[in-house]
Description:
The structure holds two protein chains of two kinds. Chain A is mostly helical. Chain A has nine helices and no strands. In chain A, helix 4 runs parallel beside helix 8. The longest helix of chain A has 39 residues. Chain B is α/β, with parallel strands linked by helices.
Amino acid sequence: xxxxxxxxxxAVRLAPTKVGATARVALGYARGCARxxxxxxxxxxxxxRACLAQVWFTAVQVLPLVLVISVLFAGxxxxxxxxxxxxxxxxxxxxxxxxxxxxxxxxxxxxxxxxAARSGTAITADVGGMVLRNEIDALRVHGVDPLAWVVxxxxxxVTLSGALVTLAMVGAVYAGCVIVAPPLGVxxxxxxxxxxxPLGPWDVSxxxxxxxxxxxxxxxxxxxxxxxxxxxxxxxxxxxxxAVVTTIFVLFVTDVLITAGMA
Amino acid sequence: xxLLLDIAVPVDGRRLRVTVAPGERVAVVGPAGxxxxxxxxxxxxxxxxxxxxxxxxxxxxxxxxxxxxxTIRANLTLPMLFAGLSAEEADLRARATLDATGLxxxxxxxxxxxxxxxxxxxxxxxxxxxxxxxYVVEELLxxxxxxxxxAWWDTRSEEGVGVLFSTSHRRxxxxxxxxxxxxxxxxxxxxxxxxLTQGRDADGDA
Lengths: 263, 206
């Protein structure tokens, strides 16, 4: 017990230092992204291509997984809630459940967790491997800014991918509800009637704000974890695991803050 | 003639002055852990608090040092793009350099899984392509001094390129006509190499 208290005390004491260090690193990464704009023309084109390659991996290649998960999630949601709402005479509120629960909360969170698990670990392993293989030092010595070439494409691509994957996921959940309705004995016309209330600008803004912040958080935490690998390849699995756990924690904290801020 | 490199590096509790003049070859000889890597990394500006060599310095890593997910040619063009060359100019120069170093046939291959000697030669080609004035080479391999490369090194020297390299091959240092900086228990490795103090004197004369 004493150990736990001492540990908590140390964590609280070190928190301002860690927050300060994180803020400094984030500022450095932001400057690195800004430096891309000042690169010579064809170097900037190379960075944009690297960014698009990352978007392809993070947002496009993940789509089959996102679609399958979304349809399964839609089925579970229908099974768990539609019958109950119908019994209560509130089936017409199913659209609100999707709007607030899926578009507002679970959609961005689930998309964020998929990205953290799939792309986040890959980014940490990739960047950490670059450090261990002296690739980052080689870039630096030969005049290639690692912040512009390594950090910026991943940061921008994963931030955008956060929004793209969230939109795909929320859309697929809506579509999934319609797909699974007949097997569950729910008339499609009745379901479509409950979904008639479209997402408003406020709902879309909140969904995009969350997904963009989630994407940026995933990229920041996982790239940083990769760049902090120092000794040998045995660090990579630990760094990846730690980065994903940190990312998921950050996602939930950010989610609460944005929900509270936009309530 | 102004020096390409003039740094003071803390080695074994002392500050060792390391200099390289244009066209000069300097070999750092010593056992593992004697500070060879520190000197080389400091020369390339990779040690915090020590300003490295000239603006155009190239570093040849013993392990890695190439972007493994890119082709060999892309490894040469990337620094040139960041230096302001157009993609077309950089590609032409990379192709010409790879041809000149006998690596033209593998330019489109990924820079992963290469043997140590090929990896070193690709990095030397990169140094040439970016027009580096100082080459810093970790553990220069005999293969990089082998058939076809003697003239290549001589041409670099005539162009004023300085070379600072570490090696455990005493004869390699001799065959390159390099000035030797011996570290630690280097006598065992290079019986004819100078001591730490001699290295400093030699530097002072440079």
